[in-house]
Amino acid sequence: MIGVHGEGAVRRDGGGGGSPCVATRERHAGHDAAMDLEPYRAELVTYCYRMLGSFHEAEDLVQETMLRAWKAQDRYDPGRASLRTWMYRIATNVCLTALEGRARRPLPSGLGAPGDDPGVPLTPAFDIPWLQPSPDARVEAGIRADMRLALIAATQTLPPRQRAVLLLREVLAFSAAEVAVQLGTTVPAVNSAPQRARATLAEAGETTDAAEVGEPDDPKVREVIELYKRAFEAADVPAIVGLLTDDAVLEMPPVALWFRGRHDYGLFMRRVFEMRGTGWSLRRLTANGQPALAAYAPEPGGGHRLHTLQVFTVTGGRVAHNVVFADPGVFQAFDLPREIFS
To answer: Are 39 and 49 in contact (CB under 8 A)?
Structure first.
């Protein structure tokens, strides 16, 4: 299984691990009525995103966390916990409340078997709360570890409290005692939760070794994505298929449909170009620590309109997975122009 306790698990004195800025933040936070909570916003958004699978909701919940902390700051006791630990306790409670009675956020591949007809009608299922991507441009580089879409999707299969324990212990490296206080439970309960969580993640199929997945800034990965971009812009289906692994996965929320294998992937891409024409324009970016492309479809009157955001997993010099987000609501977090003229 990949490292839910990977490079993000860095301990800091004063409670819990995290980004390299934590120690500095603690020194400057202070314990008076004017305590500065803002430096914690970015990492808390990342934590809430991991908990909920929605970047928009994560930002809203962190705003609520900040408000609760500001109102309760006169009750904060630095002798009992660091300010950062206290903030994560509030954020965790906010997330758990938000998750009460709510269905998990899946990807189509987490809901059933792959499709076998690339010509099937593409009907959006807006009643499903789909997993959303996270824009790297709005996340600090030091806290992007373990953000791959596949891992976030697998984490969503965990019960909320178990999810919180896994993240607080193995991603953020808080001690078992700290997490027990944050969740109002016992140290033995905290210590047993990660083992159960890892077993659930394995059942969900999240067993890919992180070392096998190429990073966006790896020259070989950049070359693969550039070749894919050129092939897509040229509507060259054979070239696209030539860049795929044999069992490559293509899925496209909010359509509850996905395909596995180069053959069906290629047939679907041929259908896309038949429906929307050729002459697309693609822009490179990153999401969830993965390479991504914003795809702009040609407009009849000229120019291009934003059509999809595609997030790739590259392994062994080939595209192994492409999650194609077509919900316009997803685009807002990435500050992408709706139209381009080039």
So the answer is: no
Under DSSP, the state recorded for 21 is: T
Nearest to 305 by CA among 297, 313, 314: 297
pLDDT at 20 exceeding the cut of 50: no
Is a pLDDT exceeding 70 seen at residue 151?
Answer: yes
CA dist., res. 127 & res. 81, Å (int): 41
Please give the average per-residue pLDDT across 278-304, as a whole number: 95
Q: Which two tokens stand for residue 219?
A: 């020259």
pTM: 0.86
Under DSSP, the state recorded for 113 is: P
DSSP 162-191: HHHHHIIIIIS---HHHHHHHHT--HHHHH
Q: What is the DSSP letter of 136?
A: G
Inter-residue contact 54 to 179 (CB < 8 Å): no
Residues 281 and 272 sit within 8 Å (Cβ to Cβ): no
* Residue scoring higher pLDDT (339 or 214): 339
Residue 51: its pLDDT value, please? Answer: 97
Write out the DSSP string of 43-85: HHHHHHHHHHS-HHHHHHHHHHHHHHHHHHGGG--TTTS-HHH
